[in-house]
Design goal:
Elements lengths: L7 E7 L6 H9 L6 E7 L6 H11 L3 E5 L6 H11 L4 E4 L5 E2 L3 H11 L4 E9 L5 E6 L4 E2 L1 H4 L11 E3 H4 L10 H11 L4 E12 L10 H15 L4 H19 L3
Parallel strand pairs: 1-2, 1-4, 2-3, 6-10
Antiparallel strand pairs: 4-9, 5-10, 6-7, 6-9, 8-10
């Protein structure tokens, strides 16, 4: 058990999420670590997402609803939640993913036991009906800025970081806002630890997701390496090739 039950602020952007968000939030409510607050940011959904999350919030005072008046995208939606977060620890959970019951507890224990202030975990993919797809996705035990430039190891819904050490790290308005955020944390000197335990379910919902169009995604990664991270041509080519190969190997079996 985690002896020091520190508050965890969980950030969940939601856009047209009515189909799966109930199970995502329910997985938070079932966590063995109970000292948390969940900010669900409705990014101007036109379906019943807002109604669903307001219903959920009425059942648990730890759930906070933030309703945006216009669609701003996942990066700025996450930032709207981050601005309100009060917890020492910041965690992320996308509205179509979900956690196993001891995800937060094991993450905080691993951070403490390994003197880490940034943790990411392994996970499994599932489809819309919660059927497992493919392999258990392992993660490297450690990660540095230079390693992450050419790596796809860190998945958003597995991340927890210690804001008392790193500070709040806001998302930037780029295509892969989460990738840029993890790089920024590592640039700030955050010590990252990869926990190889089956704690998260990452849902594949089809080709309309951000990662669905592989060619477009590749172009955006290249732009981020060259223009956002400001890598030289040779360094960018090396990082891009490594990123592409690792991404292929990770997704070769669904």
């Amino acid at each position: 058990m985690v002896q020091n039950m520190e508050l965890v602020s969980i950030i969940m952007p939601a856009h047209f999420a009515e189909k799966h968000i109930w199970s995502s939030v329910e997985s938070v409510m079932k966590q063995s670590h109970t000292n948390w607050e969940l900010f669900i940011i409705d990014d101007c959904s036109k379906d019943n997402t807002l109604s669903v999350i307001r219903n959920l919030a009425s059942q648990d005072e730890r759930i906070k609803v933030v309703s945006l008046e216009k669609n701003v995208g996942p990066a700025m939606a996450r930032n709207a939640g981050l601005k309100k977060a009060r917890g020492r620890y910041i965690a992320f959970l996308d509205s179509d993913d979900y956690w196993l019951p001891n995800k937060l507890q094991r993450s905080l224990e691993a951070m403490k036991n390994n003197s880490a202030d940034f943790i990411y975990t392994s996970y499994r993919r599932v489809d819309s009906e919660n059927n497992k797809l493919g392999r258990f996705i392992h993660v490297p035990k450690s990660m540095t800025y230079s390693k992450l430039l050419g790596n796809t190891a860190i998945t958003t819904s597995t991340v927890v970081y210690d804001s008392s050490v790193i500070g709040k790290v806001y998302m930037q308005d780029v295509y892969y806002d989460d990738f840029a955020c993890w790089l920024e944390i590592l640039k700030r000197g955050g010590k990252a630890y990869g926990l190889n335990e089956d704690l998260t379910r990452y849902r594949l919902t089809g080709i309309d997701s951000v990662s669905g169009n592989k060619i477009n995604s590749a172009k955006k990664v290249w732009w981020q390496l060259r223009h956002h991270e400001k890598l030289g041509l040779i360094s960018a080519i090396r990082a891009f090739m490594s990123y592409s190969i690792r991404g292929y190997l990770k997704h070769r079996k669904l």
